[in-house]
Specification:
Structural class: alpha/beta
Largest sheet: 8 strands, mixed
CATH architecture: Alpha-Beta Complex
Number of helices: 10
CATH topology: Spore Coat Polysaccharide Biosynthesis Protein SpsA, Chain A
């Protein structure tokens, strides 16, 4: 299974912060926003990730993430020339991705929860589609899913005026390989974009859509506005300060998940400049009995 991070768009809700930098490269507390979806995909077992960007910002993403080799993964970069909706971005994927199941995450989404990593690794069996439900106080601002008492999908509505449930659909989806042909069948909505909810409805019509409601205690943060960006930074700071652990640290995830060896982890540390981030990596190395020069 291959991963996709959607990091295009104009970031207009964060302007003027996004006048010169992509919103997915803005800081969420102590690291770039995109580190959080990258580590979510790594926890899901993904080793190849396509990063979909605008043409203007692609070099900045390459400078931030590199090839992925240092983390035991591989990044490929592709351009979505115009913001025509989430499904439209799949048209820009490399050919090697277009006959594969994918797990797709929006680049401004942050997911956190104890045990979330292990649950993601076995969440999808490669057939149909899997999306998630998350209770929110303001469902009319999101795509909303309505479930029956058995957990089956009754309806999916994009930003409904009168929501039928309080379950928003986070920007994190698993799709089988048929998603690539389904995208080609879509027509733009009234706002002129291809809608992810229409893809989910296509799977629903085939009885191939499953919704997993995220467990209580799991946090989903959409960092697409100034207010939510600040809230996400505060959330990460509180968790890291209380637990002494970092959220969204690719080097640590790569090492703990076996993507890189101890020696490769030490190389990451040696290549990092003096900083609190490097100090944290050193503490992880010490935990595992590795000698840092």
């Amino acid at each position: 299974m291959k991963g996709v991070i959607l990091a295009g768009g104009t970031g207009s809700r964060l302007w003027p912060l996004t006048a010169v930098i992509s919103k997915q490269l803005l800081a969420v507390y102590d690291k770039p926003m995109i580190f959080y979806p990258v580590t979510t995909l790594m926890f899901a077992g993904v080793r190849e990730i396509a990063v979909v960007t605008t043409e203007a910002q692609q070099e900045s993403f390459k400078a931030t993430l590199g090839s992925g080799e240092k983390w035991g993964i591989k990044f490929e970069y592709c351009v979505q020339s115009e913001p025509k909706g989430i499904p439209d971005a799949l048209k820009s994927l490399p050919i090697s991705f277009k006959n594969e199941p994918i797990v797709m995450i929006l680049g401004d989404n942050l997911l956190y929860g104890m045990g979330l990593g292990s649950s993601l690794a076995g969440a999808f069996n490669g057939t149909g589609a899997l999306a998630f439900g998350y209770p929110v106080a303001n469902p009319s601002e999101y795509g909303v899913v309505e479930l029956d008492q058995k957990g089956n999908v009754k309806s999916i509505t994009e930003k409904p005026v009168s929501p039928k449930s309080n379950l928003a659909i986070p920007g994190f989806y698993f799709f089988d390989k048929s998603v690539h042909s389904k995208v080609l069948e879509l027509v733009p909505s009234l706002r002129g974009e291809l809608e992810i909810t229409d893809i989910l409805k296509m799977y629903k019509s085939q009885s191939a859509l499953r919704i997993s409601v995220l467990e209580r205690g799991t946090a989903w943060l959409d960092t697409g506005t100034v207010e939510s960006l600040i809230q996400a930074g505060e959330f990460v700071k509180v968790i890291e300060d209380r637990q002494g652990l970092k959220i969204g640290c690719p080097e640590e995830v790569a090492f703990r998940e076996g993507y890189i060896t101890g020696n490769e982890f030490l190389k990451c540390i040696n290549n990092a400049p003096t900083s609190s981030y490097r100090d944290y990596l050193i503490s992880v190395a010490v935990e595992f009995g590795l000698s840092v020069i």
